[in-house]
Write a structure and sequence with these properties.
The chain has 214 residues and is of the alpha+beta class. It is built from four helices and 13 strands. The strands form three sheets. It has a six-stranded mixed beta barrel with strand order 1-3-2-6-5-4. Strands 10-7-9-12 form a four-stranded mixed beta sheet, with no helix packed on it. The radius of gyration is 24 Å and the shape is elongated. The model has no long low-confidence stretch (mean pLDDT 86).
Length: 214
């Protein structure tokens, strides 16, 4: 199992003020945990993490070198971003074993324009953008891709219908990935939206008039 080294420094889990100081220094607070692994609070350089989270590298297999000591295999299991700056605020590193499956969340990428939209007037909607898979670390996919060109109006596509190689579905089988509504349903949805917009317009116009009378 080939691993990419990521340097980390142990830290004492503390207050939000302490973690704020770390972020100002270009560091990201993190935690390393997993089966048979006591939870360890660490910090990693934001610039190093940016390279690991580059497109196509979401589940790079890592060796966390904590305080200069290697031998800590991991993947980035999850991370949190600031709602305004979108800077990563915290990372969870999950310990991995090359023989033990892990459950990960990967994006679903849909390619092509469905015939049900192009020729049949259907309305396409992607309902689920991420699914959970269970697989050994070396076989974690970057994404699950699906060509949707040949799908017709009236289609509801479920997670259980995805073709997975080297991985098992961990999301519920009936998770809806996408739908292509029929022409009549698409028109009904458009009409409902138009009616809602029309109903809201008089109320919006009345508000300035009421203010003007005061």
């Amino acid at each position: 199992m080939q691993l990419t080294t990521l340097k980390a420094t142990s830290r004492v889990a503390g207050s939000s003020r302490a973690t704020g100081r770390l972020r100002k220094e270009g560091l990201i607070p993190a935690v390393y945990y997993g089966k048979g692994q006591e939870s360890v609070s660490i910090s990693v350089k934001a610039q190093d993490v940016a390279k690991i989270l580059a497109p196509g590298k979401r589940y790079t297999l890592l060796d966390l070198e904590i305080d200069g000591k290697a031998g800590n295999p991991a993947v980035i299991y999850s991370y949190q971003k600031d709602s305004i700056s979108f800077a990563i605020e915290h990372i969870d590193f999950l310990k991995i074993d090359e023989k033990m499956p892990v459950t990960v969340r990967v994006p679903v990428v849909l390619n092509g324009l469905p015939v049900g939209v192009k020729n049949e007037g259907g309305l396409f909607s992607q309902i689920t953008r991420y699914i959970k898979l269970s697989t050994v670390p070396e076989k974690i996919p970057t994404n699950v891709a699906l060509d949707i060109t040949d799908f017709h109006a009236g289609t509801t596509f479920y997670a259980k219908d995805l073709k997975l190689e080297g991985a098992e579905l961990a999301s519920p089988e009936r998770t809806v990935i996408f739908t292509i509504s029929t022409k009549s349903k698409a028109k009904a949805a458009a009409a409902e939206t138009a009616d809602a917009t029309a109903a809201a317009a008089p109320a919006a116009a009345a508000a300035p008039a009421a203010d003007a009378k005061k």
